[in-house]
Amino acid sequence: MKREYGQFCGLAAGLDVIGERWTLLIVRELLIGPARFKSLLENLPGIGPNLLTDRLRMLGDHGLVEQTSVAEDGRARLYRLTESGQELREPVLTLARWGLKFLDESDADGTTRAEWGFLAVQAMIVDDAVPQVDEVYEFRVGEQIFQILVRDGRVSFERGAVAEPALTIECDAGTFVRVGARLLSPFQALATGDVRIKGDPEAVLRCTLMLGLD
Q1: β-pairing, 167-171 with 135-141?
Q2: Is the dihedral of CA 209, 95, 116, 101 positive or negative?
Q3: Which pLDDT does position 108 carry in this prediction?
Q4: What backbone torsions phi and psi does residue 10 show, to the nearest 5 degrees?
Q5: What is the predicted pLDDT for the residue at 1?
Q6: Cβ pair 169, 196 in contact under 8 A
Q7: How far is the C-alpha of 110 from the C-alpha of 104, rounded, in Å?
Q8: What pLDDT, on the 0 to 100 scale, is given for residue 70?
Q9: For residues 196 and 141, what is the distance between their CA atoms, to the nearest angstrom?
Q10: pLDDT at 160
Q11: What are phi and psi of 59, to 5 degrees?
Q12: CA angle at 140 for the pair 138 and 146, rounded to the nearest 5°
């Protein structure tokens, strides 16, 4: 039976929808991109199929998630966020940025995925430190490739490689989280070879400042 706070308050009403265990992590996965049930189950170890079904149904009932068919498999279903669900992007990124300070090395044995780097880098942006130079930074986290595009003082994010990035940063997922959580400084990671950077040193400085890693 679903529990509700019974309060005439926007925060309470929001938590009635997304406050149950696992719900925001499902949203996180769908912010990365649409996914099949099997993929969600694999990427959220510990949730179990019945609980995942329940949470997806609840998100669907509130208009945050919808199902679409898969072109190559008429029986398969793809889950994706609706426009209302996508409105959770900023709150989720803000919460992720806030949560980084609670990570420590004892958490490092937990599950991590390279795909989470695509959201993590968005959460790390310091708005006041966005460069006034138009350039693109490419990140290769594990097998995932994504980019930060800076244009006219605005930042956007895309998946995939870029032809001529101002710099390329390469590392594994665990190292990426450690640096973001300030468990490892960029300079330590460079010294050990856990992070590899190619590109213009001034672009490296601009990117580092923009990510709050100065």
Answers
A1: parallel
A2: positive
A3: 86
A4: -60, -40
A5: 58
A6: yes
A7: 11
A8: 81
A9: 11
A10: 93
A11: -65, -35
A12: 55
Per the CB < 8 A criterion, the answer to whether 182 and 175 are in contact is: no
The Cα–Cα gap between 64 and 82 comes to 5
Q: What is the pLDDT of residues 5-62, one digit of tens each?
A: 999 999 999 999 999 999 999 999 999 999 999 999 999 999 999 999 999 999 999 9
Q: What is the pLDDT of residue 69?
A: 85
Stretches in the chain below the pLDDT threshold 50: none
Residue reference for tokens 């693109």? 136
Q: Hey, which bits of 109-205 come out as E strands?
A: 135-141, 144-151, 154-159, 167-171, 196-199
Q: Please name which of 120, 75, 116 lies closest in space to residue 212, comparing C-alpha atoms.
A: 120
User: How much is the pLDDT for 2?
Assistant: 65
Query: Residue 90 is encoded by which pair of tokens?
Result: 């900023």
196-199 and 144-151 as β-strands: parallel, antiparallel, unpaired?
A: unpaired
With tokens 């279903």, the residue in question is: 77
> How many Cα neighbours within 13 Å face the side chain of 50?
0
Looking at beta carbons, which pairs linking 42-49 to residues 24 or more positions away fall under 8 Å?
A: 43/113, 43/115, 45/111, 47/22
Q: Which amino acid is at 186?
A: P
Please report which residue ranges of 67-112 form alpha helices under DSSP H: 83-86, 89-99
